[in-house]
Amino acid sequence: MPIPGLDIPFRKHVLDNGLQVVIHEDRSCPIVAVNVWYHVGSKNEVPGRTGFAHLFEHLMFEGSAHHDSGYFEPLQQAGGTLNGSTNPDRTNYWEVVPANALELALWMESDRMGYLLPALTEQKFNNQRDVVLNERRQNYENRPYGMAGLAMVEALFPEGHPYHWATIGSPDDLRAATADDVRAFFRRYYHPANASLAIAGDVDADRALELAAAYFGAIPAGEAPAAVPPAPAAARPSRRVIEDRVELPRLYLGWLSPPMYAGGDAELDLLADVLASGKASRLYRSLVYERRMATDVSAYQGSRELGSVFQIAATAVPGVGLGVLESAIHEEVARVRAAEVSADELARTLALTETAFVSRLQTVGGFGGKSDQLNNYNVFLGDPGYFSRDIARYRNADRAGVRAAAEAHLDAACCVTLSAVPAGRLDLAAPDSDLAVLT
Amino acid sequence: MSGVDRGRLPVPGPDPAFTFPVADKQCLHNGLALATVERAGLPMVSLALVLPAGSALDPDALPGLASLTADMLDEGSGDRSAIQMQEALARIGAELDTETGADSVVLSLSLLDRFVPQGLQLLADIVVRPRLGGPDFERVRTLRANRVRQLRDVPGVNAEAVFARALYGSHPYGHLSFGSSAALAAMGEGDVSAFHGRQYHPSRATLIAVGALDSAAFARQAEDAFGSWQPGSSAPMAPAESAGAADVGLAGAIRAPRLLLVDRPGAAQSELRVGHVGAARSTPDFHALVLLNAVLGGHFSSRLNLNLRERKGYTYGVRSLFDFRKAAGPFAVQTSVQTDATADAVAEILAELRDIGGSRPAVEDERSLSVSTLTKGYPRNFETAGQVAGGLAQLAIYDLPDDTFDLFAPRIRALTTDDVTRAAGRYLHPDRAVVVAVGDCARIRCALENAGLGEAAVVAAGL
Questions:
Q1: Which of A56, A93, A291, B261 has the fewest CB neighbours in a 10 Å radius?
Q2: B332 in any annotated domain
Q3: Packing angle between helix B404-413 and helix B364-375, nearest 10 degrees?
């Protein structure tokens, strides 16, 4: 029983300098969201400078030519909230401000898009490098299982592949980066032709377009960077183990899978929920509820531009080794490859997906808000209006398609296996695993 | 329009008006309070059931009982197993969120509007008729015990546990909601059903609904689902405010030792908590404390973050907060800093706590920035149905008047720098603040002791 007419109405306009502008009106709350995506992420980095795209993102908050002090203060003074983030494929920046402060947000965003470098200093650069090194310590090095994600991408993608390293990068590379690198990176990637601006909220669309042109129109056009080629990432089954400061060992299984929005992507997303979302899911029911060999289990299709990763992870209960979990998970995966999931399983998963899509229409700004979604669809598909087609990908998925995607992409022979075990307990790892050395 | 002036920043226009929606309030025959807000727009409804059955009501010997009870609610009801309950929720596209705080349990469901009647029936089964026992009890208890084991690996959880115990001792706020492995091992099915019987009373609960609904129709559906809910036989235990008399004593006590370390050999950072008992939600100084905290450590451009992150680069971020509860909750500075900067970071934090109440009081620019941060963007706190439902839950938990959110901005705007300084003098106690560090003791202990904090006690988090 799909809900008709769910979408994000928009207007799109391309400025003379190449900046794409997408506007969405929503007058229900007196706030407006400004959201800018640059089509650059850690996959654009070069070996020896991993982590740089994210370090650069930090410098975008340290002032620009005409406002050479903290980026937060004027926007906070206006009652705004703001943030940014970097992933392998893109970097985004956003403000949510009271409707009366739209011009301020556009002034600030346009100033750092056009005129960042005159405000760059060695002192700012060194300070933010220290901050990022601490971000890495906090979120990866000093967090239980925090290094597993880094080990997984290293194992899944071969050396030279742009997804071989994690977005946070290596400490040595971060320390090797220079202010000159910042200048080169800015010139190459931070300009209107590599960006998309979305404005959503309590604003008249004509007025918003006019303001976007006024604030961003004078920024010199740049040359659109060449797309990162979809490097071959052949399946390289491997078995690795890392030691961590944890009490219970956790197993990670990963497969290379179709890129975001490609055939099979939505089906694998649904399959991940059938396998591990909620107590009634296949893996939870089997590993946690019935056999009591795991304390938790998760699965997701991590969709990316050049190629995705389908990952399953489970934590063992005390006294159980990861080899046992590995066999049990592969058994369940084999079942969904051999036979279709039930009609009820798919219907439940679709009902949850439907709720999630409607929920996504609740906020205009921030991570995942409507402005962020418009930019997501615009940057990756060239179509800000993809929301309704995106839901259709899920509504149109059927049991046969889910099985076919599982069969095509989740072959146990192509699986990358990582064990994260308590220090000194290599015996708990899945059998025949090699100790991985991480920086 | 052309020619943007890069010489000055655009000045925003007047603030948009804000009023919190007026809730329709009713009461079922069994005393269950209803609060509903009709919102046009998306075909969604956010439901929340609020009960004053939080972890402050845990029996002394059984910390974690309130949370275990809340966790058991959706593990089966009547002849429906835990799995079948989960399937029924999923069929209507709903996921249950259960949150056990010190003063409350909040059960939330977000639904498409057409599923509200079924959602209410399921919620009633969960709250009123949970099985709570049988083989599910042992399974859930074991799961939780393993989860607690995993939490022992998390630096922030260790720091929170030690900090709560140091501040409150045996007071109901002296433990975290999930309790400890030892307490879990001592709990039986009978404890859970007794707690449920005593604390889950319709006359003390509030059912909140916000979104695409009709209040009158919703009240009928709520009566259908919850009308048969009758209170258990025994009287509710005293809520946490009865402990309020001890507040002054707690806030004024000098803890010895005040430097507590949890050893984490080889840790790249030290997880820090610095603070003491703060204030209750009912304090007349609530707004002054919110503003004080904003200047000190409540947002990106606050003193603590500009110092420790933007100047020193010691951390990814630092914040302070007054955790306003029924009784006086903690005031804490929270951060994680690189190991070799631990003692310096603590010294800077204590200096900031001292200075704002004395040698370097808040100045007009700081007051103005924090007032703006707190008030000008206030409407976005209630953009979604879930946020409005959360607001109504706050009103219910803390018995706050309906105009609480409408009055927030004007009350904050009325405060002066002197009010901030006065609040700092009265509510910040840097000289008796407890300092908790979870980190590599071999590398941080001496420097911390030499920073004038006295001899350290190396403790276990007791999880």
A1: A291
A2: yes
A3: 160
